[in-house]
Amino acid sequence: MQKIRNNEIYGGVNSEVIPEVEPVSPYKSTNEAVCEKINYHFNQGLAFVAGVSLALMMFLIVYNSVVRVFATPFVGTTEVAGWLMAVTTAFALGYTQFNHGHVDIKIVTDKLPTLGQKISSAVVQVMSLLFYAIVGWHVVTYGFELIINNSLSETMGVIFYPFVFVVALGFFGTAFTLIIQLYQTLTGEVRGGKNGS
């Protein structure tokens, strides 16, 4: 079907024939939009926590360096800084993946046809998805082992398994992002991120 649209040109009226676009199923687009919105806000939240964690780690190290001159420094600086670094790294993974910030060498794949590029991208995404999912699962398993064994940190003597589960959340967040990007690769859609590719 076709519909007529009137455009005003230099004070006159010009009739332009425009083909009518076939409506897209609202259910598919809505589900995709919801998943992408959840993925976006989830990774934005993790990135914010990673930034706060990094700032706290920097403050702790600087504070410990200054206090060392006048008094006894904080004993658990090394442990706390290590935990904050782990949270910073794990929580930044999903945000970086969402924005396509990881190193991507395309010297060979750029020379492939479109189908070959899609297949190579899908293979890399599947392998990355499996890697992050397996690592996240092993980190969770390690956290439960710490609970069972009543493990405490060496210097401060406090429980630290909550940080382990938090790190696992970062890996699972990255895996969730890869699931969405894999779906977009297989369906030919490339959305999200600053680069949009």
TrEMBL record:
Transmembrane segments: 46-65, 80-98, 119-139, 159-183
Main location: membrane
Homology family: Belongs to the TRAP transporter small permease family.
Cellular localization per UniProt: Cell inner membrane
Keyword Lyase part of the UniProt annotation: no
GO biological process entries: C4-dicarboxylate transport
GO molecular function, one term: transmembrane transporter activity
PANTHER family in alphabetical order: 2,3-DIKETO-L-GULONATE TRAP TRANSPORTER SMALL PERMEASE PROTEIN YIAM, TRAP TRANSPORTER SMALL PERMEASE PROTEIN
InterPro entries (UniProt xref): DctQ (IPR055348), TRAP_DctQ (IPR007387)
Lineage: Bacteria, Bacillati, Bacillota, Bacilli, Bacillales
Name recorded for this polypeptide: TRAP-type C4-dicarboxylate transport system, small permease component
Keyword Cell inner membrane recorded: yes
A Pfam family recorded for this sequence: DctQ
Keywords from the UniProt entry: Cell inner membrane, Cell membrane, Membrane, Transmembrane, Transmembrane helix, Transport
Coiled coil: none
